[in-house]
Each structure stands twice: as C-alpha cells, then as structure tokens.
Amino acid sequence: MTTTDAPAATTAKPILEVSGVTMRFGGLTAVNDVSLTVGEGEIIGLIGPNGAGKTTFFNCLTGLYVPTEGRVAYRGTVLPPKPHLVTQAGIARTFQNIRLFANMTVLENVLVGRHSRTKEGLFSAILRGPGYHRAEAASRARAMELLEFTGLADKAEHLARNLPYGEQRKLEIARALASDPGLLLLDEPTAGMNPQETRAAEELVFAIRDRGISILVIEHDMRFIFNLCDRTAVLVQGQKIVEGDRETVQNDERVITAYLGAPLEGTTASEDTQ
Amino acid sequence: MTTTDTTETTPVIPLPARVATVLTGLGAAATAGSALMSWTWTSEFPGDLTYFGSPAGLQWLALTAGLLTLVLLLGTQGVPGLRWAAPARTNNAVLYAATGAFAVGWFSVIAIAVDLGGLANLEPGGWVLGAGSLLTLAGALGLPLDRRTHVPLKVLNWRLFLIKPIAWIAYAGAAAIPEDKPVAPVLTALTAGAVIAGTAVLLVQAGHLVNHWLRLGTVPRPLPAPRELPSLVEVLLIVAAFGIGLFAITFGIDTEYGELFIGYLLLAGSVGAALGKSGLVPRLRALTVKYRSVTTGAAFAAAASFPFTQSSDQYTSVAANILIFATVALGLNIVVGLAGLLDLGYVAFLGVGAYAAALVSGSPASPIHVQFPFWAAMLTGAVVSMVFGVIIGAPTLRLRGDYLAIVTLGFGEIFRITMLNLNGTTGPKITNGSNGIPRIPDLNILGWDLGKPTNLFGIELGRFSNYYLLMLLVTALVVLVFARVGNSRIGRAWVAIREDETAAEAMGINGFRLKLLAFALGACLAGLAGTVQAHVSYTVTPDQYTFAEALPPNSAFLLAAVILGGMGTISGPLAGATLLFLVPKKLEFLSDYQLLAFGIALIVLMRVRPEGLIPNRRQQLEFHEATIPAQPAGDAAALTKAGA
C-alpha cells in the first residue's frame, strides 16, 4: 500500500467538500493541495505536527483566508470568502486560543452567536414592537437551552473572562452552536485540559454529533482523536499524507516519521517498507 | 503585587476610639457652626462672608460638609435614628467627609488670606473654621479605619527628581535672554513646562507617601439587608434623591465666582466618595434598579425643572449648551463605548447638522433662501449628518484601531477647512467661510416662538430656557435610542466587535456593516443636536468644530467626556459632559493655565478611577476585579440590563 490518499469509502451524504485547497503566503505554501470530505453526521479528525497548516486550513474553510487555489463547497454550494457568510451558510467554529467576548456575560456571548439566525434590526430595537420581544425571548430561550446543554446554565450572568479555562472552552462551543450549524469546526478543543476534562469534552462532542451536526476537529491528543473520529486525516507540512481510520493512520510510516523522525540508518521515510 | 492582601481596622493616628470620635464630632460641629459666624470683616471677598447667622457662598459648603461629617459619624456609631446614613458602618466614609470639610475649610481660609492680603483679614469665624476643620480631619484619622496591613512605599526613579532643580536653572537662564531674541519666548515656555513637570513628579511622590502612610483599603463586609419599606416610600426616596441631585447641580451651575466653584468641586468630590463608602449610594442604586421607569421619569423631571429654579437666563444658556454637549457625547458613546471605534473627528457631525439646519433656517446669509419648519429642519440636519457619516465611514471603517483614529481626526479637520473654503473666493459661496452663517432666526414650533419668553405656571422662561426644554426632549430621544439599541441584537453585536472583531465575524456578524451602522447612527444623533445648536447660538462658524480647543464642544472634549464619565453607559457621558463643560467655564479666571489644570485633572482621574465616574458593571469588573465580590446571579442580571 503506497498511497492511501483515497478516502475510506463513506456512505454518508457529503456535507463539506474541499478539493485542492492551496494557501500561499508569499513564497511560503502553508497548505498544499488538500482535499477532504466530511459526510453528514461524521466526526472527522485532523492531526499533524505543530506548524503543519491545520489552523490555516481551518481559516481557509471559514473565510478568514481566501485560499490561493481550490474550492470549498458546503452542501453543494461554493462558500463565499467572508467569515460571516460562511457562518450564515451553516459552518461554525471555535478558536485554538480561546476568543470569547471577555467582557460580556456568558449568556450574552451565546446571544451573539444567535446573530446570524435572527433579523431584528435597528428600528425594531428602537421601536420594540411585539415582534421584537418575541424574537428576543426566543433567542434567550435558545441560548439558555444551549447553556443547559453545555452545563453552564448556572453561570449565565458571569462575565466570560471569569470562567475557569475548561468552561471557557465549553462556552466557545455553546456560542458556536448558537448559530445552528450543520458543521462544527473545533480547533484543539482539549488543549490544556486534564484527562477528566478531556473525557467530558469527548462526551460533549458525541452529544453534539447526536444532534445531527457533523464535526471536523483539530487535536493533538491522539486518544481523544481515535476515540472520537470516524476518519482521521494527517497534515504534514501543508500536505495531507494520509486519511483513514485508526489502523490506517497509526500504521502509516510517514505519520510515524513526521511525529517521531526517521530511523537513523533507514532510507528516509521510504514508501515501500511494508 | 500579592493577591493575599490582608486588611485591618486601625486608626492612622493612634488615639483611643472614644477620644477620636469626640474630636471628630466637635470639629465637625465647629466647622458647621462657623458658617453662622462672620469669616472676614470686609465684603470685598466674593460672596460677602461678613454676616452672623446668615451663611453665604462658601459658608454653605462648610455647613454642608460639617453636618454631613457629623451625620455619618453618628450613623457609623450606631446612634438610633441616624443609622440609615451609614449602612456600611465604616469610618472611612467619615474620613472622606472630614477630608471634604478640611479641604473646604482650609481652601476658604487660604483664599481669603490670599485675596485680601493676609491672615489679619480673618474674623473669629474664619479661625473657628480653620481650627474646626483641621480637628475634624485629625479626629477622623484617629478613628478605627479600614486599612491594608502593608503598602510598600513606591519611590520614583531618582533621576526624575533632578528635573525640577535643573528646570529652575534653565528657566532662570531663559529669562536672562534678551526679549528681542526670537528664541526667548520659546525657551521660556519650554523651561516653564519642565518646571511644571518637575512639580508633577514631586506631587506624584507625595501621593505615594500619603498612600503609604494612610494605607486605606476595603475590609469586605456585606451590606446589611435593607429594611423593608413600602414601595411608595421607596419611590419617594428616589424622587427625593433626584431632588437633592438637582439642587446640587443647580448650585454648581449657578456658582458666580471661581472660589466658590473650586470649593464646590472639592466638596462634591469628597461627598461623592463619602456617600459611596457609607453604603448610601449602593443602597440608592439598588432602588433605582428596582424602579427603573420611576428613576428615568424622576431624572427627566428633575432636569426639566431646572429652568424653573432660575430667575434669569444667565445660567440656562450654560445649561442648554451642557445638554447639547452631553447629547453629542452620548452619541459618541455609541461609536466609542459600544462599537469600540475611536473617532477623533466626531464634532464634525455636530457641525454638519448645525450647518444643514443653518442653511435651511431662512437666515439672510444662507444662499438657499428657504425656511424649513422646525421638524423638517431637524430631519434635514439628522439625515445630512447621517449621509456624511456613511460617506466618511465607508472608506475609513476598513481600518482598525489607531489607524481609524488618525483618519477620523483628519476627516474632522477636513470638514472644518472645507467649511472655511466654501466662501465664494476659494470655493463656491455656500458657508461664508470664517464669517459663518449668522442671524439664524429663532425656531417656531407650532406657534411657540422659542425666541420670546414663555410664561409657564406663572414663571417666566427666557429664550435659553425654551431651548433648554427643547434640547431636553432631544436628549431624551437620544437616551431612549441608546438604551434600547444598546441592549438589543445590534448592541450586542457592537460590543462583540469591540471585544474581538475576528471572533464576532466568525459568529456571523457582518463587521463592516455594523460598524457603519454605529457610525451612521452616531452621526445622525450628533446632527440632531447640531440642528438645535445652530439656533441656540444664532451663528455657525467653522471654528466651533475644531479638534481641540479650550472650550467644549470639540472632538477632544467629547472623547474626554465619554472616557471620564464611563464608556458604554448612559449616565456616564452625561455626567462627564456636565463636568467638562462647567469646569472650563467656571475656571475662566485661570486663563492661560486652564488647559494645563484640565490636563492634570484628567491624568489624576485616569489614575484613580480608570473606569470613569459612572462605570458600567463590566468595566468596573475589568479594572477592579479583586475588590468586587461576585454578585448573586439575580442582582447581576438586573445590573446588566441597566448597564449595557
């Protein structure tokens, strides 16, 4: 088996189709010709050493960067290169370094997440008709429901900055879920967590999937990834070197080389060792 | 800085608690009593302080300070009937009030001695005042105070202390240069500035010393639950509080001479601090949160009754201009406080509104010979201003942070210079250049001529009173817009953009569009105020709309009002604008040093209260996280609604 680039056959209907995405910053190619498909209700992992281009790849998906080449389609339509339009279309994300609205309350953070699913404009806010009150109450109810779901309901009125680290991560997820996404992109959701917290995060990710939301997750924690993911893609130096289930990824020479280095005397990460 | 800050309750001056209490009480009584005696023999000192039994000017301030100290002292001691005055039961409140008494007392004594040339001009009342207020402060320092156990003494870099002597020598050298040399005035000004900087260094060091000595802190003790009162009584308490507030602000606006205004500021600052510490202000705030609509109503009723307290139009013109300034500051608060866009050229939108209103006012100097009715003129001003907001905002709002600030600063000046150039020689003749558009006729609303005195409830209201009342309606509208939009989907999106624009966009917020909306709404509200301003001041000239100047409104003062008052709140910019308008107005006698004094005051305020006079809860948490205990959820919910 030389190239395992052919994705393991997926029966689910594709929700996200990425084909040939390349991102260059001047002379640096951060992401090179990466293709990936996420099916409905799937959890897909994305791993790779630091600097492999995982977050850049995420940013290409969410409109933060406009890919130099390639195409990103969500439910069959090509995504516009604007973050707010991507969210509007149904892709929500969290950030590797937590980016909450620190000086807003927990509830307000989630309400901001509802922005793309509500319409009340300036005049509606000034006039405060019955429609406004109805929409506001519905937003609040939905936000509280999500806080309930992530276990933050009793901290709704705390400032986001005062939450402990693990709960800030949860709040980021609740905020992302508030936009009713079909696909959730999680950028290292368990970074800095202890094993118990990581297990809780796993539960949460499964619960989200059970709500019918597909998930694409970047992680360094291998146990987390292999417990969760239906398939895992490995990114090394901007290139996807392998994609498949646990066995495929764990036994791939190039993955081992990328993480542990090549054996001293051996032929450098050669293709035909197996 | 250790977080395990320990506190204790000890006196600064070691005295038995009982002795200190008696001393403070006696001093406060003497201070208050001295107000009934004559302080000086001649009526030459402003306010005429020569009468027995008839307080005037500064004497009223001393009386207030003395009585307040006494009431807080007795309340803290738990004397039945006065316990309501000090629910927090801390002597620090007494100390702040005593500081106010001391400051007012000694300021008065020194002002009399300086103005009249010597301490010999003091009558016995003046001596009683000086001794009494000193005794009050000394006694209060002997009371058991809430203090930190250890405050390390901060010493500034020794090189800074060299500034002063070197600057003095340089200043003497600069003074020795013959005056006909062109460098002489420049060098004199530079060295004088250095001398002032040297003084500032010494003052900062003195502040560190005093802080090290006093070690004042907060011992956390919960406020006792307030007594159950019938809701009618609670409502009456709110009304009474606003009545007192109206009286206090009216007193400040009506001060006729600089000495009295300085005394007023000294007293107002210390009384504010004392009431805050004593627990009365938190109590009142809890009440206002409970009865929001009553509070809003009472606030506007108090503001509306201001012209009725005035016998002439002398100070209502000041009040009308304060309202204009405050309304524009509130509009700026949408842009700066909510959306976090630093706009340094905001006064231009006030100018656009004023010019638009002036052009359609029917002024003979306007090239457009039309006279719009009042409502159409206001609409024109607001809409034209909003269009300008969009035109200026669309290209500039693609920038972030400091870059935006610089570009808006530039656009503000471009507006002023354009208005100067549309004079018929350097451009089309529209605005008459530096002469501006004069003789703007008074407004006439449905037959009510605002230029003529109106008789209302048997009280005659002058021209400026009329405009004041009209402006109050505009202010009310702006407050309504701010409150409602601030606490809505749009307002939340603005705050989100301010907090983290990238994350906000990832949440589906169209950052550019919402920033443009904030810019346009802010411009629209400023334009609205501008239409009234054009009529109030008869004339619009480009010079009224500069970036920085000694008198408000200008962009720098507007921004200062927002930051000084408290970003993101309603009452903050209103309070900040009032203060910033009154201080330069009342301190005109400082002439050349006015801006200097103003700058120093701003620095001091930013140092001690970075969140502004009336912060919103978020910011208070941001700056003083350690000292504010987490609030129970219900209370916090109510405050959040009040805040944003």
Task: Provide structural commentary.
The complex is a heterodimer of chains A (274) and B (644). Chain A has 274 residues and is of the alpha/beta class. Chain A has helices spanning 54-61, 83-89, 106-113, 122-127, 130-150, 165-177, 195-210, 222-228, 246-250, 253-260; strands spanning 14-25, 28-39, 43-47, 69-74, 77-78, 91-93, 183-187, 214-218, 231-236, 239-244. In chain A, the strands form two sheets. A six-stranded mixed β-sheet of chain A has the order 6-7-8-3-9-10, with helices on both faces. In chain A, strands 2-1-4-5 form a four-stranded antiparallel β-sheet, covered by helices on one side. In chain A, a hairpin with a 2-residue loop joins strand 9 (231-236) and strand 10. In chain A, helix 3 packs parallel to helix 6 and helix 5 packs across helix 6. Chain A starts with 13 loop residues before the first strand and ends in a 14-residue tail after the last helix. By secondary structure, chain B is mostly helical. Chain B has 24 helices and six strands. Chain B has helices at residues 17-34, 58-77, 91-116, 124-141, 158-161, 163-176, 183-214, 231-254, 258-278, 280-290, 292-304, 316-338, 347-359, 374-396, 401-421, 463-486, 489-499, 501-506, 511-536, 555-565, 571-586, 594-608, 617-623, 633-643, and strands spanning 7-10, 145-148, 444-445, 448-449, 454-456, 459-461. Chain B has a two-stranded antiparallel sheet with strand order 1-2. A two-stranded antiparallel sheet of chain B has the order 3-4. In chain B, a hairpin with a 2-residue loop joins strand 5 and strand 6. Chain B is globular and about 75 Å long. Mean pLDDT of chain B is 86; it is low at 625-644. At the A-B interface, helix 2, helix 3, helix 4 and helix 5 of A face helix 16, helix 17, helix 18, helix 19 and helix 23 of B.
